[in-house]
Amino acid sequence: MFRTAQDRSRAPRRTMTAAAGTPGPHILIIVQNLPVPLDRRVWLECQALITRGYRVSVICPKGPGDPAFERLDGVDIYKYAPAPEAEGLLGFAWEFAYSWIRTAWLSLKVRRAGRFDVIQACNPPDTFWLLALLWRVAGVSFVYDHHDLNPELFRSRFGEPEGFLKKLEYRMLLWLERRSFRTAAHVISTNESYKAKAVERGDRRPDEVTVVRSGPDTMQMRPIHPENPRPLGTINLVYVGIMGPQDGVDQLLHVVDELVHRRGRRNVTATLLGFGDCLEALKAETLALRLHDHVTFTGRVDRAQMAEYLSRGDIGVCPDLKTPLNDVSTMNKTMEYMAYALPSVAFDLIETRVSGADAVLYAPSGDISGFADHIERLIDDPGLRSRMGRAARERVASTLDWRPQAEAYVDVYDALTGHHRDCPAVPVTGSAPEFDARGRRYVDLHDDDALEHYLLDRGATSLTVTTGEIRQMIDPAPVEDRTPLASA
Asked: How far apart are CA 266 and CA 320, in angstroms?
């Protein structure tokens, strides 16, 4: 039964170029672990499909204050109330069952609004292959967007399985993953390490698996002059991401403790953007370590807020420890720091090196002192911070940008459905805008002097002036532009 999907994917399908305005195939995307558009990768995928003429619907859990249905930028988003936080095996089983049933019910609602041609399931969990099998009788294909290695996650959180129950749980995760791989008409992997797992464990041929990295759209993600500059003489570390047991944020707190209390770096602060199961425990640990004056938790942030924090931070931090999962996973935070020209420090992981190359300093996993050494090196050498920030931005824009990844992503659907529209998967705009949607001025990445000035102070200032006031210092002619700009 599972080979049928594979065999079907091997048969080449004729591609027909669709005229602009012609309705394209309908893609249903299923996400369980994050709301959309908060899930940045999925939202970029949605926008690429819309741009190329596909119709897109999404089923996902609600975020705080979210409606049950909304149409956003051409995407129909159906949302359900998430299950309570799971505890223990039975809790996780209930969460998966609840989410599966709510998703299945909403898929019927989507169908009533119009036939869909492909289901794309983004794991975790690896349970929606069964829903795809049920919809196969209606001629719906299945694409597996492989975001996480659940067997490696299990080993990372609980160690190598020992005892009958743990071994059974681990084997069940492997079985569910195989079902997802083998039911899919095509597999999308986030990096080459994940693709290797699809080939080895999923028995898929390399041409049945497409790597689509979660690179940022660097035309959208670029540094701004922040609205709220921080004081001169301070150094701000920035973390952005989920705060779960496997994310190592507690390691970052110990690094800040080392810098502040043992090395006397009282000017160091850390801003932690995001949320997760460990957030409250991390806040409690911050108090226990007497770091409450040095560490700020922002909670959930939107893209505009993230731009503000990453643009005024000095050093990005990637505290993910070397585990079976982390070692082969692409950390979005690394590339997001790079998009904002942030130098960063990370524990040494295989895929983090693939992303960061020479734009990141690497410490051995768990080496708090070594991690702090790298941060001190960057603190004491502004020129190094500037060079690494510049290299980071150049690398992410030239090598890791979302635009070529979007083309690879949509090509999967063009091959699967026979649909094609001759246009880029990410719209090509004219010259880059000077201001963002909130009126904040972008850093001019093509002006070497302006860029160097920004990279050295990252918005830190003892005085906030306006662009107009700066120009009047140079040329006393009247000007109208009074957009706030941070200047040292």
From this structure: 25
DSSP labels, 173-190: HHHHHHHHHHH-SEEEES
- pTM of the entire structure? 0.84
Backbone angles phi, psi at 93, to 5 degrees: -60, -40
Whether 217 and 403 have beta carbons less than 8 Å apart is answered as yes
> Cα 153 to chain center, whole Å?
17
Task: For residues 220 and 406, give the distance between their C-alpha atoms in angstroms, rounded to a whole number.
Answer: 14
Sequence letter at residue 474 = I
**Residues 235, 264 contacting (CB under 8 angstroms):** no
**DSSP labels for 77-107?**
EEEEPPPPPP-HHHHHHHHHHHHHHHHHHHH
Q: What is the DSSP string of 289-344?
A: TT-TTTEEEEES--HHHHHHHHHH-SEEEE-----TTGGGS--HHHHHHHHTT--E
Selection from 337, 306, 340 nearest residue 442 by Cα: 340
Tell me the three state secondary structure of residue 147. coil
* Residue type for position 403: R
Please give the chain's pLDDT, 488 residues, in tens.
333 333 434 444 445 565 556 679 999 999 998 899 989 999 999 999 999 999 999 999 998 899 999 999 999 999 999 987 766 667 677 888 999 999 999 999 999 999 999 999 999 999 999 999 999 999 999 999 999 999 999 999 889 999 999 999 999 999 999 999 999 999 999 999 999 999 999 999 999 999 999 999 999 899 999 998 888 889 999 999 989 888 999 999 999 999 999 999 999 999 999 998 899 999 999 999 999 999 999 998 988 999 999 999 999 999 999 999 999 999 999 999 999 999 999 999 999 999 999 999 999 999 999 999 999 999 999 999 999 999 999 999 999 999 999 999 999 999 999 999 999 999 887 778 899 989 999 999 999 999 999 999 998 876 444 444 434 434 444 433 333 333 22
Looking up tokens 């707190």 gives 253
Q: Is 143 helix (H, G, I), strand (E, B) or coil?
A: strand
CB of 147 within 8 A of CB of 123?
yes
For CA atoms 371, 376, 377, 382, give the dihedral sign.
positive
3-state secondary structure of 53: coil
For 240, the token pair is 């952005």
> Are 234 and 266 a contacting pair, CB within 8 Å?
no
Where in 96-234 does DSSP place strands (E)?
118-122, 141-146, 186-189, 209-211
Whether the CB-CB separation of 114 and 142 falls below 8 Å is answered with: no
CB 272 within 8 A of CB 249: yes
**Residues composing the chain:** 488
User: In whole angstroms, how far apart are CA 47 and each of 52, 81, 88, 406, 449?
Assistant: 9, 24, 37, 9, 35
Distance in angstroms (rounded) separating the CA atoms of residues 419 and 55: 12
